[in-house]
Write a structure and sequence with these properties.
The structure is a homotrimer of 270-residue chains.
Chain A lengths: L4 E6 L7 H12 L4 E6 L7 H11 L8 E5 L10 E5 L4 E5 L5 H6 L4 E4 L15 H14 L26 E2 L3 E9 L5 E3 L9 E6 L5 E2 L3 E2 L11 E4 L5 E4 L5 H5 L6 E6 L7
Helix pairs in contact in A: 1-4
């Protein structure tokens, strides 16, 4: 049987051997594992950043892929280590909500606490569960012959920590939401999905003055010579972007910042 | 048949799941692909930086390797997605010149527009062609049994966008060129290839005063206690370096900055 | 035979194609090699940072793994390129001490100079031995059928450059050591191993005033609302950390900074 792919998403960055050590542990247990870095540049302790990374990424991997997601400020406390079987994938990580958006997107799912010592290293530190629990658990899952074998990992968890996805709110003049993610190019990814019937006319970010827009642009480059434009980004959400520059810097926005988009009809546009 | 290696060069950086998603798409289509990151630290939208990265890197990979190069500010516009077969390699990327230096270095080459929908994902966004067109195209190419099968990808392009490599100019007192690349250590890579017969005596970067040098140094460490020195870098071009420090910071240079190197004979040296 | 894993640790960073080119060379020679990045974020020319990365990482890889470690400010000078066979692993890198802590941790070891041209590329530059000597040497080692074949690589080196690991010193009031590594989260990793019998009561970093601590904390999160706390980090050494913040920034510490930890008994605590 072809062993499944294992993806890694962490806030461990690229200046320490942490991620490499995780791969060592996985290869030690399953020499044939195919390991893929999904994102290690999640900001330190940014659980929502990790949640959004895996939400937008997991669906492009083959069914049966095991996604290890470790943004874990509570390592060594009582927060539970969990493994999750969703409709098409497996997820492994801390029970702090980092998995909840992906779980919702690939429901139904069963959550189990990783409690079986066979799924851990012999020695478990209190500071590096990615190495001592999550990586060996992922490696063991990748060696499973039958799908049901995974139940040995530990008891079912019926009350996993869930971070509700921030849903946008329809208002009289349009829709309000927030910046859920900012990418390397400074594009502000909102939690607002495009509505084909809407005529978007303006956008506000935080307390900055409203900026007029002319509907959804098809490409980032359409923004050349303009202020901010709206684009449907690769994650399927509306992004606020600025051609050739960082929209983040242009408007000084942060994740969580309030966004308002005004729609059609005239009067309510800025 | 051993499946070919696929390399990835982008300006996507290391803080987002973009590159990981590309790998998911490739593995989804070809579970046996061997994927290698060549460089994802190209500065955002720096087409020349991408062109130089792949120019210096491609030749060290096995023949038949497929090189995916995506620095693509024009994604979603009319710029064409292309695949290129050169003497020994394949290249996939936007038709914006990012491939042109590698193409010239591994001529002859045939360029085709990626137009066959079988080489794309079912849904193609206007903002992430690396995921929706370039990665699946590379994966499909990696599954080709016979070399000629690749022609199905789309029609030949006879007028690909070419960025001419900036050639240095011989002057009365030496040679003038420019900084084509600056590496992590702050070494200034020029477009000037070493001439064994030349006696290099001085160097100027931009408008800074000339600095005396004593020919080509053999190692970076020879510069200890000196101002700038000249070294033949790993790309085969002359580099301007400063031992134990960043030459970039020492002289405040940028890519594209003019460089003058004076040669032998006495009078013309600074 | 399953080909061994090859790990890569360098100070090459993530903005240039250097690491990708190393992988090209390795795959060119051994298409079945499994290559793992251990850490490329070692600070430029920081030999001790590289030494600590490989010290904490190597043991989690399968026996027989070949660890390539290149932090090499002396490339092109007379410093020797070496390969080392330890009790369970192989190491390849410059003879500048970067391997010495891992060597001590997996003794006994035999060091050989890489002198056989069959273990190098045909053309060897003076500026990129990672590509021209270390990568091909690692690839050749990974193709060895019998363990003893590696002796062909070159003559034994009896006087390798050794950087002594900085051992802490027991004092009247506790123990003094130094910061040997600072990770992405700003945790200060010391050279002090925890003593189960000690009651740690205070800590000083550099010339900063002493801070009272209450023994070893079990998790980073225990430090919430406190000043610095002490934690046994994943490397087995005591770390000085600050919950939710960078201890590095909080105390302005650098690698090499002196650390004092006071122990039990009352009077000597700050």
């Amino acid at each position: 049987m072809t062993p499944p792919v294992i993806t890694l998403t962490t806030d461990f960055g690229y200046t320490d051997p942490f991620v490499g050590v995780m791969k060592g542990v996985i290869l030690y247990l399953n020499r044939d594992a195919v390991i893929v870095d999904l994102n290690h540049g999640v900001a330190p302790h940014d659980v929502r950043g990790g949640a959004f990374s895996i939400l937008t990424g997991f669906r492009f991997f083959p069914a049966g892929t095991i996604h290890l997601v470790v943004v874990d400020p509570g390592v060594g406390t009582t927060r539970r280590p969990v493994a999750v079987k969703t409709a098409n994938h497996f997820f492994v990580g801390p029970d702090n909500g980092v998995l909840s958006w992906a779980m919702a997107a690939d429901a139904p799912c069963v959550v189990r606490e990783i409690r079986n010592k066979d799924f851990m290293l012999d020695e478990v530190s209190s500071t590096f569960h990615a190495r001592d629990i999550f990586s060996p658990a992922a490696a063991r899952l990748s060696l499973m012959g039958k799908a049901d074998d995974w139940e040995a990992i530990g008891p079912e968890v019926t009350d996993p920590v869930i971070i509700p996805f921030p849903e946008p709110v329809v208002t009289e003049s349009g829709i309000t939401g927030e910046v859920v993610y900012i990418d390397r190019f400074g594009n502000l990814v909102t939690n607002i999905r495009p509505n084909e019937d809407a005529e978007y006319t303006g956008v506000t970010v935080g307390d900055a003055p409203a900026i007029r827009v002319n509907g959804l642009s098809r490409s980032y480059e359409e923004g050349v010579g303009k202020d901010l434009i709206l684009v449907v980004g690769s994650s399927g959400f509306i992004e606020i972007t600025k051609a050739g520059r960082s929209a983040k810097e242009a408007v000084g926005a942060k994740t969580g910042e309030k966004v308002g988009i005004t729609c059609g009809g005239g009067g309510q546009a800025p």
